[in-house]
Amino acid sequence: MAEPALKNAVEWTVSELSAALKRTVEDAYGYVRVRGEVSGFRGASPSGHCYFRLKDDKAVLEGVIWKGTFGRMRVKPEEGLDVIATGRLTTFPGSSKYQIVIDSLEPAGIGALMKLLEERKKKLAAEGLFDEARKQLLPFIPEVIGVVTSPTGAVIRDILHRLADRFPRRVLVWPVRVQGETSAAEVANGIAGFNALPERGPLPRPDLIIVARGGGSLEDLWSFNEEIVVRAAAASMIPLISAVGHETDFTLIDFAADWRAPTPTAAAEKAVPVRSELLVRLSQLGARKLSCWQRGIEQRRKELNLLTRALPKDILAQPRQQLDSLAERLPRALRANAQIHHTQYSRVASRLSPRLLSNQIERRRERYTNLKGRLSTSLLANAQAHRARLARHRDRVTACGNAAHRAMRTYLDRGTARVERAERLLAAFSYRDVLKRGFALVRDGEGRPLRAAADVPTGMRLEIEFADGRVGAVADGEARPAPAAKPKPRSKGGEGGPGGQGSLFG
């Protein structure tokens, strides 16, 4: 009876049955929230979609995130991360399996968030984004301050109020969301946007950037732990102050910023000094400078008075008497000197006549004409000689240059060959080729290589270097001797074999 009844059952095609199962699963479950550990995540596929599995200790559920959804996610899937996934349960007829199409992910509890935060911090620190050498000095009195924060919160009002009290400055606000899925991208765009402003454009480029947000839970502050925000802060060419949360709150942007403020108000206090205190300080310095100048003048006046007292009173009497005597003698000497020169002039004038002067001028003109002709001939001959000498020297310099070029090329070729031989020799002696064959190099905590098991006490921290990287380890026991090599079995025919000859198959 059972066999005829089965023959009367409705026949399904594989596609029809798969479609019916798909509708049943989607109608029965619809949207679900599933907690599990991310497994098999290797990043987005070439198409942009993500495929991985959610698992616990007893079962595995296939998961998929479409490209558009993955780009909007605040928390991205990471291998081994414990998450709560929200999405639609459906089937995939192509492989006869059911899966969840995920719309959102969130870490399963504070412990998972802290684990993710610690792993991300180690990754970014390894890239050097938190190095002190990258930190910039803050300007003493910035002309323009850029603030990346929410324009509607109390943070911006606190910053503006504090700046107005201490030292009023021009403030540019880049409005962003400080919480939510798009918050991280908006904060990163704000930092990059301030850096992209031209130096002397219509909108002034800030001299200092403050990224600020009020306090909140770890989930509320998570946007400032995203890689895109940390990388934007590290890449900022404008000095940046991080003022996220309260004094006890720490986010990853605090490590990448040039200075971390415990509160937004503290950031405003760090950004500018107190103007009234500066004015008082300037007044004090001006008074000290004037006092020092007055003391110096007074000291020099005292020294001048002391030197004046040390001079004798009649020190100018003898020079004054000599001056009077010379002044009396000067008119007589001038008249006598003029008479002597007049007599000499009269004697010379009697010997001069126009004809004599004309004859001397004519002789000198002829002499100068001869000298001019000889000079022209000499200059022409000298120029030709110099031209020939320059041609010879030019040929010689060209020959020397060609020889030097050939010698330099030969020298460089020999040097290149020596460097290549040295590189090959260095590669031959390098221990890294040994590591690539499966060996490892063991170092102690200070980086010194260990060559014997007896040098390793129990609990010693070790560093093991493989060909592709290094890992840490801890010695868990005392040194054990290596097993002795087993002797190679001999052939039954003995070493000599029949007839005293060696065996070909031994």
Task: Describe it.
Strand 6, helix 5 and strand 7 (about 170-175) form a beta-alpha-beta unit. This protein is an alpha/beta fold and about 500 residues long. Among the domains are: about 15-110, OB fold (Dihydrolipoamide Acetyltransferase, E2P); about 120-275, Succinyl-CoA synthetase domains (Rossmann fold, 3-Layer(aba) Sandwich); about 435-475, no CATH class. The longest helix has about 80 residues, at about 355-430. It has helices at about 1-5, 15-30, 65-70, 110-125, 155-165, 185-195, 225-235, 250-255, 265-270, 275-310, 315-350, 355-430, 430-435, and strands at about 30-40, 50-55, 60-65, 80-90, 95-105, 145-150, 170-175, 210-215, 240-245, 260, 440-445, 460-465, 470-475. It is built from 13 helices and 13 strands. It is elongated and about 165 Å long.
Strand order of the largest sheet: 1-2-3-5-4
What is the percentage of strand-forming residues?
Answer: 15-25%
Number of helices: 13
C-alpha geometry: elongated
- Largest sheet geometry: 5 strands, mixed, barrel
CATH superfamily of the domain at 118-276: Succinyl-CoA synthetase domains
Overall mean pLDDT stands at 84
State the distance separating the first and last CA atoms.
73 Å
What quaternary form is this? single chain
Evaluate the radius of gyration. 48 Å
- CATH-defined topology of the domain at 118-276: Rossmann fold
CATH class category of the domain at 118-276: Alpha Beta
Category from helices, strands and their pairing = alpha/beta
Share of helical residues: 40-55%
Give me the strand/helix succession.
HHEEEHEEHEHEHEHEHEHHHHHEEE
Shape-level CATH architecture of the domain at 118-276: 3-Layer(aba) Sandwich
Uncertain runs with pLDDT below 50, 5 residues or more? 493-500, 502-506
The count of β-strands is 13
